[in-house]
Amino acid sequence: MSRTQKVYVALAAPMVLVAGIVLGIWWAGNSSPSTADGQAASASGERDVLYWYDPMQPDQHFDKPGKSPFMDMQLVPKYADEATGPRISIAPGTRANLGIRTVEAERGSLAGTISVPGTIGWDLRQEHVVSARVDSVVDRLFVKAPYEPVRAGQPLAGIIAPNWNTALAEVQALQSADSAAAQALQPAARERLRALGLPSHAQVSNGRIVLTAPVNGIVSEIAVREGAAAPAGTLLFRVNGTDTVWLEAAIPQAGIGGVTPGTPVEAHVSAIPERVFEGRVESLLPQIDAGSRTQQARIVLENPEGLLVPGMFAQVTLDPVESIEHVLLPSDAVIGAGAKARVVVMETDGQFRPVAVQTGRSGGGKTQILSGLQEGERVVASGQFLIDSEASLSGALERLDATPADEMPAMPDRGLVPDTDPGAGAEPTR
Predict the structure, then answer these.
(1) What are 308-362's pLDDT values in tens digits?
(2) Inter-residue contact 267 to 275 (CB < 8 Å)
(3) Counting CB atoms within 10 angstroms of each CB, which of 43, 152, 330, 397 has the fewest?
């Protein structure tokens, strides 16, 4: 062996020795303690471990102890006696620091007042269509502009309709005849006239048939002009009554449960601030708007003075009927919604646990609890998100209760060579 080779061997031997010592320390610090703890816990038989998990990633489960692949910390065991649900203990002083406040679940009826916007429209049950059931010509228009108010029996248009004129002449001739045969034909002539669709309120003058308004209201549409031909079935006028109007209001899906046909309603219109219009829910339209999750309620409002007109906006106040009592909680105490709704319950021993609940409708700052919670149980109404989150508990609450020494994580001695002479008082290597 040459002199150079001897020098390399002499330098390499201490480096191999140091590497072996470092590897041993790392293995002892990362494998042996956690494995020994797991074996000791299993051997003791006191508490059965279901799995290990990282408090910062509680959804990930591991079948053996060790280091977390997410954070530089040891995995935490989940014991079998905790399988029924996590129970959290918090010192009273810590509760005050975190602002945790509890309320008692009470049974009662939900405040029923619902306030939503609405839009006024025509009451289509009072809409009447004036049309020609036979071929005709519009000889004269008495109402030429839309949205004019009319009275029942007021002339709208004069038309010339040969079929109607012929049928009318036949009826008049049979009525003036004295023979028994002519009198026997009178019912058939009148029936033919009805089959041709001559309105009962029409007036006949000098061969012209005058069509009149069937009710008091507004002429909302005029579809013809003077001198125009009107084939059979042509729409001439549309007349809308104004004694009542419809108010279409969008009710949130969560509050529709207590709204039924007949529910009383009050409407406020900004154009008439001194008046309160009373009405009732006529029906709930069988369709939910997919975007706003609301259901249309059709409300009938009395309008004898004709102050309400289509297109007006109104603020609607409803008083739903709530006859069934439920467990009620402040809406802020409920975490999540739907199938994932839950609350944090405080046990008699001062511990906390999350509980899945089924919620009903909400109103007045309260939410119905249909199942999962009993009357009299205490529920966290403030600070429940910290308790519900296992990561927040492990990362925040434990740090609050920890001493300054505990807050410093133990760092593995990776790459450090133990001091073989700790009493030498030598200055640390930099």
Answers:
(1) 999 999 999 887 766 578 899 988 889 887 777 888 888 887 788 888 898 887 7
(2) no
(3) 43
